[in-house]
Amino acid sequence: MQAEEPVQPAEPQRSESGRRVADAMAAVYGQRPQWVVRAPGRVNLIGEHTDYNDGFVLPMAIDRAVWIGLSPREDSHVRVHSLDFLQGIEFDLGALERGGPGWGEYIKAVAWSLQAAGHGLHGWDGVIFGDVPRGAGLSSSAALELASARAFAAASALAWDPPAMARLAQKAENEWVGVACGIMDQLTSACGRSDHALRIDCRSLDIDPVPLPPAASVLVLDTGTRRGLVTSAYNRRRQECRQGAEAFGLTSLRDLSPDTFERGEGRLEETIRRRVRHILTENARTLEASQALRGADVESVGRLMLASHASLRDDYEVSSPALDAMVEIAAAQPGCWGARMTGAGFGGCAVALVERAGAAEAGERIADEYRRRIGQVPAVYVCRAAQGASLS
């Protein structure tokens, strides 16, 4: 594939956040950026913890993102200043070492993964800014990884292949950062499509855009509670799924049929049985929800979202009191078709499908009731489905 020739458009084509990093680039380095790259976070409408089981997911990229303004260097050094953390990092592409601020590790991880895949990289100076809430289950890490990959591709004149770059970003998080994530987050950030969710087959990586009904809006409901993926039970759930697959002589729970599970579930230890049941039923719900969205059957999608949350709470045990309360409050609102926790769990966000006409008002009612019941101030975002990683 021929290398993409990055072209700098006129400044007015950049978003407010893009202009912000461009202005900061001039202040920090004394020059305006040659490029501004952007990569979105994502919210998963349904299909949770199925991605690392080779299953199906239904996420959408959201209109919150990570931006990097950058200009190439003639050497192998990378210098990046973070507007979020008010600090900078510097490293040499020829001598990558772990250490330094956590956000910088993701940039180094992407550099390591790209070079391990045989890509020759050039250095660059950049400024980074993001408005994806961190630790909320909206894939701020994947947005940072894909923005970094887009920056390295621009500075190094690499062809931009979104699925391939998503796989390399996943490798960076798995093997450098140490989080055993699946491919969904990176693939959604790389391949998002405006006004569409993406039905992703996490085995083949086939992506099927699914239009979102014009009458519906997506609310992201941030509980204000956080979890650390590396130290959480996330990796334990992966191991439990492997145990479940092995008990049926399979390499992945994707290949388990309902009939086989029904015949063999009695020999499984109770915890493993519930984990396997969640994956099996969640894959079925995700496929059904995709078809329902295509037919603008929002009532069915809402019902499936509520069933997904119950399964995540009871069988997979990755919800929390705050998430349960948020889902219950949202589901009780007029104009809400359904809600569920989203992301790895143990804290973070819920997602709700609501009538577009009253979305903002519904969000305010949910926030008020959550604050009254839990005593914590949540954040509520009316989100639209956005394009994947881009360069301007």
CATH class of the domain at 11-48 and 55-207 equals Alpha Beta
**Which word captures the global form?**
globular
Number of extended strands = 12
Summarize the amount of helix as a percent range: 40-55%
- N-to-C CA distance: 21 Å
The oligomeric state is single chain
The low-pLDDT segments are 1-13
* H/E element sequence: HEEEEHEHHHEEEHHHHHEEHEE
Hey, roughly how much beta strand do the residues contain?
Answer: 15-25%
User: What is the CATH topology assignment of the domain at 11-48 and 55-207?
Assistant: Ribosomal Protein S5, domain 2
Largest sheet: 8 strands, mixed
Query: For the residues shown, what is the average pLDDT?
Result: 93
The total of helices stands at 11
Query: What Rg, in angstroms, do the CA atoms define?
Result: 21 Å
Structural class: alpha+beta
Query: What is the CATH architecture term of the domain at 11-48 and 55-207?
Result: 2-Layer Sandwich
State the gist of this model.
The chain has 392 residues and is of the alpha+beta class. The chain is 41% helix and 22% strand.
